[in-house]
Amino acid sequence: HVQLVESGGGSVQAGGSLRLSCRASGYTYSRYCMAWFRQAPGKEREAVATVKSDGATSYADSVSVRFTISKDNAKNTLYLEMNSLKPEDTAMYYCAAGTVVFTYWGKGTQVTVS
Description:
By secondary structure, the chain is mainly beta. 0% of the residues lie in helices and 54% in strands. The protein contains no helices and eleven strands. Strand 9 (91-98) and strand 10 (102-105) form a beta hairpin. The termini are far apart. The relative contact order is 0.32. The model has no long low-confidence stretch (mean pLDDT 94).
């Protein structure tokens, strides 16, 4: 039974920081590509950051100099460090895991920037 549980969301003022976590269980964590997605009200879901099984990372242009994705294979946990937050970063943030496609998804954690 694969499970992804996000945490760390909240409300913050513009310019502030948050660290999201995604605890994974039920599969061989280190072999999967992991990612953070977000979806704001009325907008399509977008990929924010991705980390492959070999550790290679990629970012959306809008966050590339402000966000950092990382994972701790020993703890089966994915992180997203978010700095210099902007109101346009307000969204529900989701953790996802998969190989060819992102098969597994968490329920999300809300980030609100005012």
